Amino acid sequence: MKLPGTATITVPTLLLDEHRCRANIRKMSEKAARAGVFFRPHFKTHQSLMIGRWLREEGVSGITVSSLQMAAYFSAEWDDITVAFPVNILEMDRINLLASKIRLNILVEDTQSLSFLKAHLTSPVGYFIKIDVGYGRTGLLPDNDRKINELLALAASPNLQFKGFLAHAGHTYGCRSVAAILAIHEQSRLTMIALKKRYQSLFPDLMVSLGDTPGCSVAEDFTGIDEIRPGNFVFYDLTQARIGSNTTDEIAVALACPVVALHPERNELVVYGGGVHFSKDRMEGEPEGTVFGRVVRQTASGWGEVIPGMYLRSLSQEHGVLVAPPEELVQYQVGDIVMILPVHSCMAANAMKRYLTLEGEWIARL
Amino acid sequence: MKLPGTATITVPTLLLDEHRCRANIRKMSEKAARAGVFFRPHFKTHQSLMIGRWLREEGVSGITVSSLQMAAYFSAEWDDITVAFPVNILEMDRINLLASKIRLNILVEDTQSLSFLKAHLTSPVGYFIKIDVGYGRTGLLPDNDRKINELLALAASPNLQFKGFLAHAGHTYGCRSVAAILAIHEQSRLTMIALKKRYQSLFPDLMVSLGDTPGCSVAEDFTGIDEIRPGNFVFYDLTQARIGSNTTDEIAVALACPVVALHPERNELVVYGGGVHFSKDRMEGEPEGTVFGRVVRQTASGWGEVIPGMYLRSLSQEHGVLVAPPEELVQYQVGDIVMILPVHSCMAANAMKRYLTLEGEWIARL
Description:
2 copies of one chain form a homodimer. Chain A is of the alpha/beta class. Chain A is built from 12 helices and 19 strands. An 8-stranded parallel sheet of chain A has the order 2-9-8-7-6-5-4-3, covered by helices on one side. A 6-stranded antiparallel barrel of chain A has the order 10-11-16-15-14-17. In chain A, strand 8 (207-210), helix 8 (213-218) and strand 9 form a beta-alpha-beta unit. The first copy, chain A, is elongated and about 70 Å long. Chains A and B meet through helix 5, strand 10 and helix 12 of A and helix 5, strand 10 and helix 12 of B.
């Protein structure tokens, strides 16, 4: 049950299948090229300069991040970064520092932040107006022309360049079918096109940027969209697989966890691997109830298919409790390694802070 | 709305009220002294050498941790450490290194691990047999004398010293009343006393160790118990308050989060503060539904009571969406700081990695 090349695993370790990851990157990059959209992948999932280089090898030249801290980290190798998060005016110094070094784009949705930026910016930044295409988290409603015009009028400043409209159709994460994702994607696309048409005469270069992983994974029609920003696709995960974004054999990360206790009397085994490793993200409403991860079969060079009926039913801080069918359970002993696909790879990767490739190479991240 | 002394907060920051924390420590320490039990607090909640010193000032001389990594970190200042996690035999080298330097206690529940330890230990360790008093995570059932005797017989070795039986009544976390916690505590106590009686003639010095924060917070009767190991009590949190372990004004940590977007049209505001800061732990079945945190009123020197109806309804990776009554919402602007009590302080502290006291001092942790 030991994986060749990972004999040194003694504690929970996030394994990265570089081949799967590069294949995911290539597939999305090729789709963007086919669709004629600028591919500005979100780097919040991997947060790694090394993995960023794999994206660059596929032609990526501009990136998306979700914090100024991430922008600062990636500014070592990238000079065109969009921070796809409502601008945090408390970080004005960091914004000015970054804007003096790279092409920085930020997001605004209110006049107060924009006034503050206008008064305090010392270098030029591009700004997108955040549009809420139905997710209901941040952004202006797309028909709010009064507010959009207020922002555009206020932003007349040499240091504020209007780039266009940006949206995140995060409500695709509530979908359970490709058809449902496509319906949201199409509605978002048409919303953004309509916005672009209304403002293009005043701003001939304005862009519309869209980009959730579910939509970008299943849609083919990006007509009228200028830029996409998917992020999770580099690794994918069980949540994305359930939505319909990917197959489970495209998932590029798995947590290797030592078995520490066997409980055949209740068809369970306990692993060293808990909420501090996986995060507490979960899938509810699965056939088994709530699921925190699924076990995959180990192969000579990595991992293969999901083992039916073997899943993480609960997570404490350091413990994970796995349900296992009797015929699977008997194959495990304490000291073995179990490989578990995460429910949410972005959060698991953030918790683990580094990756071990199947070739035994450690990959650092922020 | 700015807190004096925290004007430098620009990103999500975990605030620690040292006075509340020290009061929580003193209260539990005094209870242990009154009850005549050895107080071996769990350090997995704070994971900080500095906060450990506050515990030492209240007389603590032995500690509990949940990983060998934590044991290694705390071994810089502590020489009596119990790792309350099923022994991970893959970390044999770390066990031997620690056992050569400090008094190390570990947990066993199976013959395979114990045989492995017996064959590979190079320094003495104490071992507890883990007992499942009803939580159903790890441990032997208390009536499993066959298995207990098997372990005791196998462990005859100069490097393996039997310390006693250890249990964690984690099912108290499912309680919603003090009476329910007390019922579990009493049952666990009687179970451990019965075990002790059966094995005391063979092992006159054997100890029974118990110690979940809910039970230790509300119970007064620890007769027959030798040691308690609560952990969360140093900070407490909303989950413990709901269970009945503490009042909300005993909660010693709060996340300070910048406001980045206002959405009065839906009675919400968005903060910079997401799953990577709070963890994704939640309270389900609250009057409002699922709750990820609650907002407290800011005071001149820290924070006061919980603001009714103001809570975190969802967390993304970096975003938190707060519901706020209109009369509260109007008091906030972008760039303000909101203070939010976490649902689970252990997980939030693990995510944040350091603390800022209300006096402006940074406190490091593992």
